[in-house]
Specification:
With 341 residues, the chain is of the alpha/beta class. 39% of the residues lie in helices and 16% in strands. The protein has a 9-stranded mixed β-sheet with strand order 1-2-4-3-5-6-7-8-9, sandwiched between helices. The N and C termini lie far apart (53 Å). The relative contact order is 0.13.
């Protein structure tokens, strides 16, 4: 979402006046990349659908490029503020895949497999052999399918707010939202979605909870007709296609992350995802919910940078000690037990 650029605005006078934030599509000041000419945006076409990528070059890269696949309400500019922490170590690639952001409208009969293939097309067009893939929420479904179908293109895999199943109540809500979009009831949808993304009051302390909730609501309620049409088609796509498919995943370094108080994709759901990978670590980011990348932006960027450069994830002040999970870990434990007998 376009929230990250908003949260750092000056709000010192909030007690004397209501905060009415602007939600820019892009802020040239956010990373400094535009000023030094090291950002390129390219329009590409895959199977007849135009889409756009953003490439922010690194000074002296020490690892493979970082490809960020965001959630359904995010676009290629949603991660601009994270770039300043990532670009010293790696090239940063973001993208509006077909059907999202400013890309062409994508009919719902094109599913996750198609979007994963579009990611592979993006890397071929950029001449990138392997990436550190960071994929959040809906981007996690696309990222997982990409990992399954194009394993040679993957150096590391980080999944954020990901689950192997869409909760039944959320699926039911999507059907209701589809009807509401047709009626133009965007404000009601915006309130319901904000409540879904944010943890309910009393769940636990979440940083910037009120500000992020307000901004989520305003962004969704302010969607233009093109964005509403894409949102409706996205919901239809979710209902028509497999979110997760239990296919083999390459044995690359993997990390699954959720917010400590994420009630949409809970920590337990995150552990299930990690357990389905060959060998993964799982952790939670303290005092956050489903929007951890926004609520603790600098810490989240630090976690990404550490993971993508094989840095230590132990004893970090902003997240729990990583748990080692995965099919290889389970198999190793079983073999150890057999030997002990």
């Amino acid at each position: 979402m376009f929230l990250d650029a908003v949260l750092t605005q000056d709000q010192t006078s909030r007690r004397s006046r209501p905060v009415v934030p602007e939600i820019p599509e892009q802020s040239a000041e956010d990373s400094g990349s535009e000023r030094d000419g090291r950002v390129e945006e390219r329009d590409l076409t895959f199977d007849g659908f135009r889409y756009t990528c953003r490439v922010a070059d690194a000074g002296c890269p020490v690892t493979e490029p970082v490809l960020l696949l965001g959630g359904s309400s995010q676009d290629r500019h949603s991660w601009v503020r994270h770039e300043k922490w990532l670009r010293p170590k790696a090239q940063v690639i973001t993208v509006d895949l077909p059907g999202y952001g400013t890309a062409d409208f994508l009919p719902a009969h094109y599913g996750v497999d198609f979007l994963a293939a579009a990611v592979a097309h993006l890397l071929r067009e950029l001449g990138v052999e392997r990436v550190n893939l960071v994929a959040a929420c809906y981007g996690g479904a696309v990222g997982m399918r990409f990992a399954q179908h194009y394993p040679a293109s993957l150096a590391r895999l980080m999944l954020v707010g990901m689950t192997t199943r869409i909760p039944a109540d959320y699926a039911a809500a999507m059907e209701r939202w589809a009807v509401m979009i047709e009626r133009g009831e965007t404000e009601t949808i915006a309130r319901e979605l904000a409540d879904r993304f944010m943890s309910p009051p009393g769940t636990g302390p979440v940083r910037k909870h009120a500000a992020v909730s307000r901004l989520v609501y305003r962004q969704i309620a302010g969607q233009n007709p093109d964005q509403l049409r894409k949102s409706a088609e996205h919901n239809t796509r979710l209902m028509r296609h497999e979110w997760y498919r239990p296919e083999p995943v390459p044995a690359v370094p993997s990390l699954v992350v959720t917010g400590e108080y994420d009630t949409l994709c809970t920590p337990e759901m995150g552990r299930e995802v990690a357990s389905a990978l060959p060998e993964a670590r799982f952790t939670t980011i303290a005092e956050t919910d489903h929007l951890a990348p926004v609520e603790r932006m600098e810490d989240f960027a630090d976690l990404m940078a550490r993971f993508c450069t094989d840095g230590s994830l132990d004893e970090l002040p902003y997240c729990a000690r990583p748990e080692s999970l995965g099919t290889a870990v389970t198999a190793g434990a079983g073999e150890g037990a057999r030997r002990a007998r």
